[in-house]
Sequence to fold (520 residues):
Amino acid sequence: MRPTHIAYAIWTIIALLGVVCWLMPEEGLVIGDWTLRWPTLVEALDMEDEAIDDELLAMDDDVQHLSDSAICYVSNSEPSNVVYSEPSHVVDTDSMQMNDGKSKGVPCQPLFAFCQALDSANSMPIRVVHYGDSQIEEDRITNILREQWQKQYGGGGVGLIPLHQTIPTRSIRQWISMDGKVQSVQGGPKRNLVYGPRNMRLPDSDDYGVMGQVAIMDSTLVKGSEKIVLNIEPIDKKRKPHNYFNCLRLLTDSTFQRTNVELRSKNLATIQDTTISSATIISHSTFNSLYYVLPDSTMHCELHLQGQGSIYGISLETNSGVIVDNIPMRGCSGNIFTKIDSAQLSDFYRDTNTRLIILQFGGNMIPQTENKSTISGYVRSTLRQQVHYIRACAPQASILFIGPSDMSTNIDGKMTTYPLIPYMDKLLKKMTAEENIAYWSMYDAMGGYNSMVTWVEKGLAGSDYVHFTRSGANKIGKQLYNWIETARQQYQEESIKLENADSIHVDTINLSLDSLMSNL
Fold:
């Protein structure tokens, strides 16, 4: 082969690869459950650092502009309505709770709908759904929000729990019995997840339910699992609101009927077991909700289930106050909501009056990612798509995104913040501002760069330099609660201003009418 032919072939291959780099999306090409990734032109030509640095400078200007343009108004008509002003991108994206506990800024209108809903918590249940990765396992962080809100606005119970509780929580102890034998943590009906190991996915189905997991009672899958007893009791017997509930909600498919379920609870007034057989069945196209009202508050129950079907979750709750769900998804990056049937999500959010959805993701992308374009595609495309999907499923709910904490890795023998965390944090601030949802920077709340080292030294985080200890989770949970409460106070102040403005306007009109009538 001639040298010119070889050179021609080489340049042709380079040109074709360049075309692929140019056409390939930053977030990769999704083919079914697989994502094909390819270097972009910026990466291939080694232009990434310069491009990203310019982008960060531009983002700083954009974020400041969005923050300065935020103006808040609330409606004084129906409590569930919020009137937003123009421009629509109004969230204070520099809002953060620093580690001294003082607020540098608060979210504005994106949380006003939730703040308004809290006003009616004494007469109806207000639901908060907290999704997250392993940082919220064991009911960490969520339990602080639940305890504070239930203390202030009423309510009880821990909200949603799965039929399987494979990871112990700080609030509820539960176990499954089959034929009188207590099952191991992994025992009982087969469990399928929309996240985690691929071998736990449902075959050709998005029937995962609001918790992103489903337990299937079917003796062909697990012998004897068509007849089980679920036992539930609190970790401690202290008189805390989350230990007591007077309603139970069973989320199952249409094959389960009321006659297949028997609920036994301990009536605290008489200290006797009570069997509750009657339930209100709320039927939907994709699932049934069996809603039991107990004769008295309880903190212990047995749920006897018999038959074949799918169990999406059990909710321990009250008929008023604030109900807070803790839904941890270990190893998840928050990219799974579009893989859950939208009707299941919409029906649950609507039936339970869900008014705040918290998404706490991003940390799992950091250790496995080395280039910034992958983070950019993840935030700007993948997470944005999830926000759009959830907003469509729960238009009545406020959305709060919580970014990843500081995390450390060994760089030149020294534990140092992962290089891409500050970049992801800035991208999340910008994306949430553009989508008009609230954002809380946990990275900033901890103290920013290299703060994880300090948290580990103080016993607030573990030796993996990633996860909080219980005391650390309590600290960060209190900071988050105080930050949201500051938004609540701002909402109340804006409401008073609007009411006063309306009052002055009405008085002016009346004065003008009186003046006109006197002249006549």
Summary: The chain has two domains: 47-155+320-495, 158-319. The domain at 47-155+320-495 is CATH 3.40.50.1110 (Rossmann fold).
